[in-house]
Design a protein that fits this description.
The chain is mainly α. 54% of the residues lie in helices and 4% in strands. Strands 2-1-3 form a three-stranded antiparallel sheet.
């Protein structure tokens, strides 16, 4: 049998970890996207760095050499929904880490209104209350493909699938209050 192989590190740490501007930017992203720790952020930054590195290497190649690899890279990023359908190779170089963080399951659950906060979205995912199609996904950092985005819902056997669940009612009340507040701001009230 033997011992399992030691897992490889999937992230690179910042080159200058103690610079104040980097620390503040990372802390802001951790709070905005509800990440557990900086390793999650570094993993997505490393993924972005690899995509951008491939794009830079393709720019220097001849058109015959680069055509196939460019199509593979662009189709993968389009499938994940990181870039739009009419994107070209230069758009890959303009990507930011926020573009990748927006495609995480945790973020999409929050944006769809299935959770009242980004932190509750993480909890719902890890506790198994969220499914994509028929498949229960318990990984908050799962990158959701564009075609899977419409299939995200509460798990059928979850107590939250019932619209009369107290948490769902509380979220509905908060949503109506927020839309009322937005309408009041538009009319100039406050």
């Amino acid at each position: 049998m033997g011992d399992p192989k030691k897992q490889k590190k999937k992230y690179e740490t910042p080159r200058f970890p103690w610079r104040t501007d980097i620390l503040q930017e990372e802390l802001k992203l951790l709070g905005q996207y509800g990440l557990r720790n900086k390793r999650e952020l570094w993993r997505h930054k490393t993924m972005l760095s690899k995509f951008r590195g491939i794009a830079r290497s393709l720019i220097g190649k001849t058109p015959e050499e680069r055509r196939k690899m460019e199509e593979e890279l662009l189709s993968r990023l389009k499938k994940l929904g990181i870039i739009h359908e009419t994107a070209v190779l230069d758009d890959v170089l303009d990507l930011t880490v926020e573009d990748i963080l927006e495609r995480r399951l945790q973020t999409i659950v929050f944006r769809k209104g299935l959770a009242k906060s980004i932190y509750q979205a993480r909890q719902l995912v890890t506790h198994g209350h969220i499914v994509i199609g028929d498949q229960r996904v318990t990984v908050p950092s799962y990158l959701v493909a564009r075609e899977e985005e419409d299939k995200i819902a509460y798990a059928p056997d979850s107590p939250l699938a019932d619209p009369s669940h107290p948490v769902r009612q509380m979220m509905a009340v908060a949503a109506t209050a927020q839309t009322g507040r937005k309408a009041g701001k538009e009319r100039g009230e406050e």
